Amino acid sequence: SVPLGYFGGLGAASRNGILIKGGNYLEALNHIDTFVFDKTGTLTKGSFTIEKVSGNNTLELAALLEQHSNHPIALSIVAHYGSENLSGELDQVEEIPGKGLRGNYSGKELLVGNARIMADHKVDIDSEDYPGTKVHVALDGQYEGAVFIKDEIKDDSRDLISAINSEASSQTVMLTGDQRSIADHVGNELAVGETYSELLPQDKLAHVERLAETGRKVLFAGDGINDAPVLARADIGVAMGALGSDAAIEAADMVIMSDQPSKILVARKIARKTRALVL
Ligand code: ADP
Ligand code: MG
């Protein structure tokens, strides 16, 4: 059981925009030595700018399907296109975590997502080099083109990672479903200790399990539906509440009500103070 004094700590956290679902998690924060982050929407803004589009119907088809997703990519494409312009018969929509979406558009199969979902459906894609994310679109097995989008690193993430890196006993890790070139770029920019890319949701979970098995005390911060199992498995799961999916918020032990991952360190400061008071 957790001493009553922890209620004070939970209140202080909540006044700082951090929701903690129990005093035990506040106490556990004192013991975290491995800080693991999802990339998109957690360390990066997750509000993508659309830089160009190839193909005539690509953007409209992408927006049509992305209306049904809460992924940061989906929200950005729909916002750019304008949801009022969307019409068309669409059903049987299915989100494929780490890959994209499929649906039935007037009897034809519509696919939107990365190279992986296209390969799964044997659709050949263009191989143009682009230093960002390409969202591919295919209709009825025919490649339509891609929406070229770009994300930005949060300034707040720079402060956070450098603060953690300055602690001798703490380690930083980034896990992402995104492609290697982008992940490595973000990882290098932020000086994250270890970066793992092109991961499916189950691969993220396996990484966190491996860390826990080697005795690390793991905090994982993420925002997506596909992050829910990882949030549940980590010693402390932190959801980014500003953009986070309901599933992530539900599975998390701690919710940051803004888009600032550095609130993790604010929470830990409160945890330390609380501990000093109750012990
Ligand atoms: P991250 O681990 O960085 O949060 P995800 O696992 O959510 O990334 O997604 C990995 C990749 O899958 C994305 O970079 C994107 O290429 C693709 N993807 C996932 N969801 C969508 C979507 N709704 N629309 C387009 N692409 C998507
Ligand atoms: Mg994510």
Automatic annotation (TrEMBL):
Keywords: ATP-binding, Cell membrane, Hydrolase, Membrane, Metal-binding, Nucleotide-binding, Phosphoprotein, Translocase, Transmembrane, Transmembrane helix. It is found in: Cell membrane. One of its GO terms (molecular function) is ATP binding. It comes from the Bacteria. The keyword Magnesium does not apply. One of its GO terms (cellular component) is plasma membrane. The keyword Magnesium does not apply. Belongs to the cation transport ATPase (P-type) (TC 3.A.3) family. Type IB subfamily. This is P-type Zn(2+) transporter. It comes from Salinispira pacifica. The chain holds residues 362 to 640 of 690 of the full protein.
